[in-house]
Automatic annotation (TrEMBL):
Keywords: Cell inner membrane, Cell membrane, Membrane, Porphyrin biosynthesis, Transmembrane, Transmembrane helix
Entry membrane topology: Multi-pass membrane protein
Organism expressing this protein natively: Limnobacter litoralis
Reported function: Involved in a late step of protoheme IX synthesis.
Record localization: Cell inner membrane
Protein name in UniProt: Porphyrin biosynthesis-like protein
Transmembrane segments: 45-64
NCBIfam families tied to this protein: TPR_hemY_coli (TIGR00540)
């Protein structure tokens, strides 16, 4: 409808202009020295309009032609940037999926654009590091366009991770020292430094680094968890035979660190070897009470036997809470035997034998009955022990 109305208005305007022009007798005269040019006003108006629009379109075309090279350059640059973005995206996808060939292809496609940035090389280096191709990762990071980009701190961090994976811990430290002061406060940097210090055997410095990241989520991952166990193992070795260092190490251990099973094992073994069994019990017993675990019970067992008198009440209480635990039943029997409570030890070993018959338990019961001056019972258990030994010697 709008087009129809516009067409009617255009026709009406054309009719009106034609009518006015038809009845217009005006003329235009132009004098050129001795010559004179006469033409109608209508013709002059038409010529003026044609010249105006001709001049306008001519200037516009000239200006457009002047901008054409810049627009062409912009067009080709945008095409290259699009190709680079696609190559980087393909590289990230290859990094996520572990597609090493795809990551290498993405780097080559990025290089073809001529616009590749340090980000392109960082993605490729991370992919190589993830696939344990450490030499390739190092060679990529050493390229000029990777090392001279805007993300220099990221390059140094990746180089430190490569050195860490190769076991060159001092080199990893050197790489971290080249980073900016702001970057040194990052959690990932502190984590890599902690792992490097652990590899170098600088246990106290490594523990300080661990505690700097202890409040972050990174301290709970498996790598940090394993590193903490190694740190305490090294600290315990250093403290052997040094009572003051042992006391200081135990006193400064944080509750969150004592949740690490390797830390508990190292401290318990250190205290037991130093004749401080009661201190080892004080460390282990709260954890067993709140979170009973068989691996923790294995650590507690030799310490409890060594300090049987102090451990007996707790072992009895723990057995009441977990009466069906075979390992705990054997521990209770061992502690009672150490305290010469023959009746309790025998009763618990017999209960354990009824659940899990074995030559080991039969031999223990034979010795216990001998110590309890019950030779008849001792002979019976010797017979059961012989039966187990005969069965074990039979060919499969």
């Amino acid at each position: 409808m709008k087009r129809f109305v516009s067409l009617l208005l255009l026709i009406a305007a054309a009719v009106i202009i034609t009518t006015i022009a038809h009845d217009n007798p005006a003329k235009v005269t132009i004098f050129l020295t001795e010559h004179r040019i006469d033409f109608s006003l209508n013709f002059a108006i038409v010529v003026f309009i044609v010249l105006f629009f001709g001049f306008y379109f001519g200037v516009s075309a000239l200006r457009a032609s002047g901008q054409l090279p810049a627009k062409l350059r912009q067009y080709w640059k945008e095409r290259k940037q699009t190709a680079l973005l696609k190559a980087n995206t393909d590289g990230v996808i290859a990094l996520i999926t572990g597609d090493e060939s795809g990551a290498d292809r993405a780097l080559k496609n990025a290089a073809k654009t001529g616009l590749e940035t340090d980000l392109t090389y960082l993605i490729r280096a991370m992919s190589a590091l993830q696939s344990d191709d450490l030499d390739l990762a190092e060679s990529i990071l050493n390229r000029e366009k990777a090392s001279n980009g805007q993300n220099r701190d990221a390059v140094w961090l990746l180089k430190a991770k490569v050195a860490l994976a190769k076991g060159t811990y001092a080199q990893a430290q050197d790489m971290l020292d080249k980073m900016s002061p702001d970057a040194l406060r990052l959690i990932q940097v502190k984590k890599v430094r902690m792992l490097a210090l652990t590899g170098l055997g600088e246990w106290k410095a490594a523990l300080e680094q661990y505690r700097l990241i202890a409040d972050s989520r990174h301290s709970s991952n498996s790598e940090c968890h394993e590193a903490l166990g190694k740190i305490y193992q090294g600290l315990c070795k250093q403290a052997q035979g040094k009572p003051l260092e042992i006391d200081n190490l135990v006193a400064t251990a944080k509750p969150a660190e004592l949740k690490n099973i390797q830390v508990l094992r190292s401290l318990a073994q250190l205290l037991a070897s130093a004749g401080m069994g009661q201190a080892a019990l004080q460390i282990l017993e709260p954890h067993l009470l709140t979170n009973f675990r068989t691996d923790l019970l294995e650590i507690y067992h030799p310490v409890a036997v060594q300090a049987a008198r102090e451990a007996l009440p707790f072992v009895e209480r723990l057995l009441e809470l977990n009466p069906e635990e075979n390992g705990l039943l054997e521990l209770a029997a061992d502690v009672c035997e150490q305290e010469q409570l023959w009746g309790k030890a025998i009763a618990r070993f017999e209960k354990l034998y009824s659940k899990v018959p074995s030559a080991h338990i039969a031999a223990r019961l034979e010795k216990l009955y001998q110590r309890a001056n019950q030779p008849e019972k001792a002979r019976q258990w010797q017979g059961k022990l012989n039966q187990h030994l005969v069965v074990s010697r039979q060919p499969a």
